[in-house]
């Protein structure tokens, strides 16, 4: 058995903390661990021998739980590839069509792309990640197969959920439901969906198809809802009806949900209360260019709101980063979080709220949790976020994947 001990760290509240990891889980955590019984081998001595204890002297570094990416698209990225020159139109449908054309012309390798970006996420301290993967009548399961291979390659360290996502819409493209069905049978964990009004143009039929497929597979759903204003609220209403009718409480995530940011406070609070009752969680990218769901109202209502990049350097956007501390900074900027204790909320969006939203189990800094740990040189969460402090050590599922700032 390999044991890992981290000594001389500081918790987010500033107090001393030490952690003992056994079998990939946190076996002990507290202000100070008792002296280890086993023979020790310091980090840097090479791989620890059987029954050895690997010790990290954190030298006062700040300990955070593993970061959580609640919404990205690993399969689409051009991360690590030549720069993609974006000359796309500005409408949603322009971007969908542009991507389909690029995908057909470029011979994009979703397996290689997702592996490169998945490794970059790990090196930056993300240990849990939900990725949407394009499923449509042209790509079929090609992107899914690539991302499944990446999940297998990184399975000892990165806990990855795969969403089967119909990027091109469903109702207008015959055969898409069947491809989604096959994706869920093949290994996707979650059913994705897209704007039932704006893209599918028949919200009742669209959502009935979504919930029927989720019901068939007993899987959760995660829908991209870009629809603005009353159109988006109408889609929420139809979803709530179906969640309650089908007993899907706690199994629905709505990503983006821009429309919630357009409502006056009373209407937003009323809708959020209904979402809380239905166990609906939200994901935001905190985009500077769009209205966003009201963060504090969500927290008051008990609606989880997690942070995610969405696409990273793909045909949709040149932006994004596998550094979730950067996403936390975007959240801080978008929601005008300035006090240090307010930035704790931004960190919460890319840690605990992400785990809660995506149903990642055994998450956090407590005995029995999966040992996902990040150590940085910073006084507190606010400084870690604003400086995007380099990751000194990252432990993923008990494995040291970054040591003294170097990915190993
Ligand atoms: Zn997305």
UniProtKB/TrEMBL annotation:
For this protein, the record's InterPro entries field holds: Amidohydro_3, Metal-dep_hydrolase_composite, Metal_Hydrolase, Metallo-hydrolase_Enzymes
Q: Which domain of life is it from?
A: Bacteria
> What is an example of a Pfam family matching this protein?
Amidohydro_3
Q: What is this protein called?
A: Cytosine deaminase
Organism name? Pandoraea captiosa
Q: Which GO terms describe its molecular function?
A: hydrolase activity, acting on carbon-nitrogen (but not peptide) bonds, in cyclic amidines
Cite the Amidohydrolase domain residue spans from the record.
Answer: 204-402
């Amino acid at each position: 058995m390999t044991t890992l001990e981290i000594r001389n760290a500081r918790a987010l509240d500033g107090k001393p903390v030490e952690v003992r990891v056994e079998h990939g889980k946190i076996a002990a955590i507290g202000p100070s661990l008792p002296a280890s019984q086993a023979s020790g081998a310091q980090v840097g001595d090479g791989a620890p021998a059987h029954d050895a204890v690997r010790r990290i002297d954190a030298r006062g570094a700040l300990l955070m739980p593993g970061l959580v990416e609640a919404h990205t698209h690993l399969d689409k990225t051009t991360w690590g590839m030549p720069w993609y020159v974006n000359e796309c139109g500005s409408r949603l449908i322009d971007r969908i069509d542009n991507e389909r054309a690029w995908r057909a012309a470029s011979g994009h390798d979703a397996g290689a792309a997702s592996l490169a970006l998945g490794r970059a996420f790990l090196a930056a301290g993300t240990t849990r990640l939900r990725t949407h993967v394009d499923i449509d009548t042209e790509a079929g399961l090609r992107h899914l197969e690539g991302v499944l291979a990446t999940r297998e390659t990184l399975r000892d360290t990165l806990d990855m959920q795969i969403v089967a996502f119909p990027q091109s819409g469903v109702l207008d493209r015959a055969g898409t439901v069947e491809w989604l069905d096959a994706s869920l049978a093949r290994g996707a964990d979650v059913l994705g969906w897209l704007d039932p009004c704006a893209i599918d143009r028949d919200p009742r039929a669209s959502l009935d198809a979504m919930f029927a497929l989720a019901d068939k597979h007993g899987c959760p759903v995660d829908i991209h809802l870009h629809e603005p204003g009353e159109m988006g609220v109408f889609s929420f209403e139809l979803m709530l009806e179906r969640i309650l009718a089908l007993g899907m409480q706690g199994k629905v995530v709505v990503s983006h949900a821009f429309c919630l940011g357009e409502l006056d406070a009373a209407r937003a609070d009323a809708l959020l209360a209904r979402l809380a009752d239905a166990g609906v969680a939200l994901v935001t990218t905190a985009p500077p260019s769009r209205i966003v769901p009201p963060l504090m109202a969500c927290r008051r209502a008990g609606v989880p709101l997690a942070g995610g990049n969405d696409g990273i350097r793909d045909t949709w956007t040149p932006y994004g980063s596998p550094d979730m501390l950067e996403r936390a900074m975007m959240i801080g900027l978008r929601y005008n979080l300035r006090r240090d204790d307010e930035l704790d909320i931004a960190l919460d969006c890319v840690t605990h709220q992400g785990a809660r939203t995506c149903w990642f189990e055994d998450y956090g800094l407590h005995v029995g949790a999966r040992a996902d740990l990040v150590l940085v040189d910073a006084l507190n969460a606010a400084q870690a976020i604003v400086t995007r402090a380099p990751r000194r050590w990252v432990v993923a599922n008990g494995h040291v994947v970054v040591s003294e700032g170097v990915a190993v």
